[in-house]
UniProtKB/TrEMBL annotation:
Originating species: Talaromyces atroroseus
MF annotations from Gene Ontology: phosphatase activity
Signal listed as a keyword: yes
Keywords annotated in UniProt: Signal
Cellular-component GO terms for this entry: cytoplasm
One family name in Pfam for this protein: His_Phos_1
Protein name: GPI anchored protein
Leader sequence residues: 1-18
């Protein structure tokens, strides 16, 4: 990768700020915070997004809160937490939504995970279906429309405070999911406009799979012309090269950085932007949950998890963290066996070069890539 691209996307130590944001998850508000909640079986739209039916401090003395819905009272609770917090602490609720079922998900199910990982995922498609920067399947559209209908139900029945800001991954399946979920809702009159900001670092964990590569900026702009594409977003994907991929440690640092970016873009006013929608991917949401100190909670396609976040800004400089991206080998033809693991045919040994044409100048990541946490 070019040095200029690394600086533009991640930042280097020379550009460090003297502040650091420490994140923690505030538990006791959502079922997903609790170890007894089974992520596999949890259905968010049957559980009020997981919001626990409880009272909050000070409610017994307030006549105003009587008759309010659980979501209205929770919003007042977030306001209370911010009002009583020190100047360097703020609380926000992030609704992390995983994209709906994509054609890459369907292909992985069809071929089986071992064969998918070691051969099919390195292709653009199979001649019938395309999964490079995959679009939503009809099932995925249905999942996003389910989220749409649930948001409308909560607006109508509980007067939920709708998101004050929207962020999304640049990959097509997330752009579509956010659009199907929020576009056309009958928002309350005082609601923020649904106009997401597209952020590079909200993308899925970067592997050699073509579904992890993004389309060009011009394509994204034409798909959602009224949305905001963040400053510095490049025309071509400068992170995916079909050869190297992030380690989980590298993705975690990227997750920390994008959380920092979103919090800083939301501003320091504790009375604004309290509810935030983030449309991303299973791996990336899992990585952000880890950074936030949340328990591991895997999301099914189309699912949503809200998290009450405490962000504490500390006046200290944090050392730059460096990780080397890893190279993955894969087959050049469908594997000989793939029931439990991938075994390439003897006539087609594993290679570490792309099976598809890389349309932009391929970045070469050989030395450790440094990410500035500040």
């Amino acid at each position: 990768m070019k040095l200029s691209a690394i600086v533009a996307i991640f930042g280097l130590a020379a550009f460090a700020n003297a502040s650091y944001i420490n994140y923690t998850t505030v538990t006791g508000y959502f079922l997903q915070d609790e170890g007894s909640t089974n992520a596999t079986e949890f259905i968010y739209y049957e559980e009020n997004f997981g919001l626990i039916n409880r009272t909050y401090p000070g409610e017994e003395d307030s006549c105003v809160l009587k008759g309010m819905s659980q979501w209205q009272r929770f919003y007042e609770e977030v306001i209370r937490l911010n009002r009583q917090a020190p100047p360097n602490v703020q609380y926000k609720v992030f609704f992390f939504g995983r994209h709906g079922d994509g054609y890459h998900n369907a292909a992985q199910t069809y071929y089986g995970t071992p064969a998918w990982n070691c051969y099919w995922a390195e292709l653009d498609g199979n001649g019938t279906t395309t999964w490079r920067d995959a679009a939503l399947t009809p099932a995925g559209i249905d999942q996003a429309e389910t989220a749409h209908n649930f948001w409308q139900e909560l607006i109508n029945e509980q007067s939920i405070h709708t998101p004050d800001a929207y962020f999304t991954s640049p990959l097509t399946r997330c752009l579509q999911t956010a659009n199907y979920t929020f576009n056309g809702l009958d928002f309350p009159q005082s609601s923020a406009e649904f106009k997401p900001t597209i952020k590079e670092l909200l993308r899925e964990g970067i592997s050699i799979h073509t579904c992890d590569s993004r389309s060009n900026e011009s394509y994204i702009h034409n798909l959602v012309p009224d949305w905001t594409i963040e400053y510095g977003f490049t025309e071509y994907d400068e992170l995916w090269n079909g050869v190297t991929g992030e380690t989980s440690d590298a993705e975690a640092v990227r997750s920390k950085k994008v959380l920092d970016e979103m919090f800083r873009e939301l501003g320091s006013d504790k009375n604004e932007n309290l509810f935030v929608s983030v449309t991303s991917h299973s791996g990336q949401i899992g990585s952000m949950l880890s950074v936030l100190g949340h328990r591991s909670f895997s999301l099914n396609t189309g699912a949503v998890i809200p998290v009450l976040i405490k962000a504490e800004t500390l006046q200290e400089t944090v050392a730059t963290t460096c990780f080397t991206w890893s190279t993955s080998a894969h087959c050049t033809a469908p594997p000989a066996t793939s029931v439990a693991s991938c075994v390439c045919a003897s006539s087609t040994p594993a290679i570490t070069t792309p099976l598809v044409t890389v349309t932009s100048e391929p970045p070469t990541i050989t030395a450790p890539v440094c990410y500035n946490l500040c």
